[in-house]
C-alpha cells in the first residue's frame, strides 16, 4: 500500500506524460492565437502579499486564499493574550503575510502599477499560469488549476471587445470544440435596474439573474423578492429578460422603449451596437448571442461581459470575462480601463477528452525506439541515433540489453510509433529493420529512407 | 509612490514580455533536446504534503520550506498549553500540513511511487517547473526559481549517464553558452576515503572537497582536520586530488595503485571507464573532464556525478546531477536506480543576458502593427488583418484613433518590426504602405507582397 506521504495533497494532481502532451496541445493553440492578435506574455510569482490579494474577491475569496506561514519564528511580536483569544482570522494576518495567487487578474493589475514605467499603453498581455483556491475538492474541481488570461488595459475602444470575441471564436474553432458565445453589457443591466425602479439594487439583481441557467426563472424571482426587490419591479423585469427577436430588434426595443429614460442604459445599447457592427465584419464561425440574462459574478465589470459555453457537454463556462473600468484603482492608479477574458484550461481539457477531440498526434510522445541487442550494437545504434536526432526526430535506444519482448512492451506502453531493430545482419548490410507499430508492417531500409519515412 | 501592496513579495519577481520571450527561447531549446532523447514531460502540483518533503533535504532544507497554513480553524485540536509553549517547530507541524515544492527530484520520486502502475520502466521523464525556497534573497538568488530536470529511473545502464552528458553538451551548444563539463564518481570518492583510512568519514570528506573551487586547498584541509580526519590521511589525500594526466592515465593510476585494495573504488573506476568509452563515440563539442575534486552536495548520489559551469562568467553551476540508487526507498519502493541532471534556467538566462547570447529574433514580440486612422479605415484594416493572421503573422491594429506620433511611439517601445499605414489613398488603390522599423525604409505594396516580405 502506498503511504500517505507518497500521495499528492487532496484536491491536487500530477500530470502524466499522456496528459501533458494533450494539455500542451491546448496551451499551444491558445498561446498562438493570443500572439497572432498582438498580445505578449508576462508571468507573475506564485506568491503575492496578502495585502495585494485580500478584499478583491469578496468574502468567499478571502476565505479560500491559501496563505503561506511566515518563515522563522512566526509568533514573534504576538502576545499570549492575542493567541489565546483564538481569533483565527486576526491571527492568520499576523503569522502569514503572503498567499498563493487566486486568479490572474488581480496580480495583473498589481503588475501594471508596479511596472508602470516599463510598459506602454495600451498594454496587451496574456498570462498562462496556475492559480490556487482552498475550495472543497470535487469531481472536476481542483485546488490548483490553470487559467489562460488575455487582457488589454489602457484603451477604451470597443475594437478590443470585438477582437477578444474573435480570439474566443478562433481558439475553439482550432480546438474543434463547439461553443455558444453570449454577450451582454453591465450598463444595460444598470439601465434595466433603473427602468424597473430599483437602480440601487443593481448588484443583487445581477447576482440573481446570473443564476437563471442553473436554477430557472421561478427561483430567480424568489431570490429577487428575498433581496427586497418590489413585486412590481419583478413583474416588470420578466418581459425584459424574455425579450425575443434579432439582436437589432432587441437593441431597438431597449433603446426606444425600455431604456428610453436611462442614460447609462442607452450608453450600454450604444456600446452593444458598435460591438455588433465590428463583429459583422468578421468571418466568425459562431455568431455571438445577445443574452440579457448573462450577468457574470464579479463586481468589477462595468461594460461588455462575455461568456462561452460548450454546446456538447454540460459543464461550467469554458471562458468568460468583460470590461472593467477601475481595476488598478485599488493599487493607486485611477482611470485605466481594461477588458479581458480568461480560458479555463482544465475544463477545456475535460470537454476535449470526453468528446474525443484530441488529434491523433497527441497520443504519441516519442517517435522511434531502437531495440538494444548488446554492447557492439549499442555503439552502432548510437551513431545512427545522432543522425536521426539531428533531423529533429524524437528517438531513443532502450538503455539495457534485456529480453526483446520486454523492450517491445515498453515501446507499446510508451506509444512509440516506430521500432528499429539493428542486429548483426543489419550492421553488416548497413540497413535498419523498421517496424511500424500501428500497422505492424516491417521493412529493411537505409538510414536516409528511415529519416524520410518518419519525418 | 507605489504602495507596498502593489509590489511583488521580497525575493520574487515578475517577468516582463521582453524577458518572457528570452526565457521561452531557453525553455524551448531545453525541452526540444530532452524530447529528442526520448524523455517525456510530467508536472506535479506546487504543493506537496509536508511529510513528503521533510527529512529529504537535510536540516537546512527543512528550515527553508515554504509552508501553507491549514485552511479553516487551524488552531482546532491544539491546546492552550501547546500554544503557549511557543515551540515554533512543533507548532508549525500542527498548523500546516502542506508545503511548496523545494526541488523537482523528491516530487518525482513521490510521483513514481504513486503512479507505479501507470508508468513503464525505464521511465524517462523531464519536468520544467518553479520551485520555492525561503532563502535570504540576494543578487541572482530568488525565492521562486525554475528548474529543468531530466531523469531516467529503473535502468542501471551507464548509457543513461552518457546520454545525459550528450544532452548537456547539445543544449549549451544550441544556446551558444561555453561550458566546462566535469564528471566524477561517488564510488571513487568512497574508495579514496577507504584508501586513506577514513572510510567512515566519506560524507564529511565529500562535503569539504566540494568546496575546493570556492575556498582553495588550504581551507579544505583545515575543514578536514576540524572534521576529525587524521593528519596522515589529509597528507595522503593531497597527491590523489592533485592527480594529473589524461583520463586514461588517471583511471589507471587509481585502479592499479591508489584504489588497488578498495572494491568499491575499483567499481567506480570501471563505471568511469565504461562511461568514457561511450563518450568517445559521441561527437561532443566539449570533452568532459574527469575531476576528482568534484563531489556535489547532496547525500543521495551513489555513482556518477556531473556538473557544468560557465567558462565565460563567474557564477554557480549551470547544471548538475548524478546517479542515485535509492531515492524512492523513502516512499516504500526499494532498489530502483536512477540518474538525472537539473538545469538552472535562471542562471542560464543571466549568463546569456550578460554575455549577449540571445539571438536577434528574441527581441521582438509582435511583428506588425496597423496604424489606426479612424472608423472607416479600421474596418478595412480588420479584413486585411484577418488574412495576415491566417498566415501565422503576429499582427495588431492600434485600438484607438490617437495621434500617429503616439501610435508610432507604442510600436517602437513594443519593438514591433513593421508598421502598416492604410489611409484614404491606400484604401483607394488597394495598397499598403509598409514601414520597416529597423531600416526606416517605406514602400507601397500589395497584401500578398506584404505577407511574403514578413513571413
Q: What is the CATH class designation of the largest domain in chain A?
A: Alpha Beta
Secondary-structure-based class of chain A equals alpha+beta
Q: Please, how many domains of chain A?
A: 3
- CATH fold descriptor of the largest domain in chain A: BirA Bifunctional Protein, domain 2
Give the helix level of chain A as a range of percent.
Answer: 40-55%
Evaluate the radius of gyration of chain A: 28 Å
Strand proportion of chain A, as a percent range, falls in: 15-25%
State the shape of chain A: globular
Largest sheet of chain A at a glance? 8 strands, mixed
Overall mean pLDDT of chain A: 93
Strand arrangement across the biggest beta sheet of chain A: 1-5-6-11-10-9-7-8
The CATH superfamily of the largest domain in chain A is Bira Bifunctional Protein, Domain 2
Oligomeric organization of the protein chains? homodimer
Q: Architecture of the largest domain in chain A in CATH?
A: 2-Layer Sandwich
Count every helix of chain A, treating DSSP H or I runs of 4 or more residues as helices.
Answer: 18
First-residue to last-residue Cα separation of chain A: 44 Å
Tell me the layout of helices and strands:
Two copies of one chain form a homodimer.
Chain A: H1 17-36, E1 40-41, E2 47-49, H2 50-53, H3 58-64, E3 67-68, H4 80-84, H5 88-95, E4 98-100, H6 105-114, E5 123-132, E6 144-153, H7 158-175, E7 179-185, H8 186-195, H9 202-209, H10 212-226, H11 231-241, H12 247-258, H13 263-281, E8 289-290, E9 301-310, E10 319-324, E11 338-344, H14 345-354, E12 368-370, H15 375-390, E13 395-397, H16 404-413, E14 418-421, H17 424-429, E15 432-436, E16 442-445, H18 447-454
Parallel strand pairs in A: 1-5, 7-8, 12-13, 12-14
Antiparallel strand pairs in A: 2-4, 3-4, 5-6, 6-11, 7-9, 9-10, 10-11, 14-15, 15-16
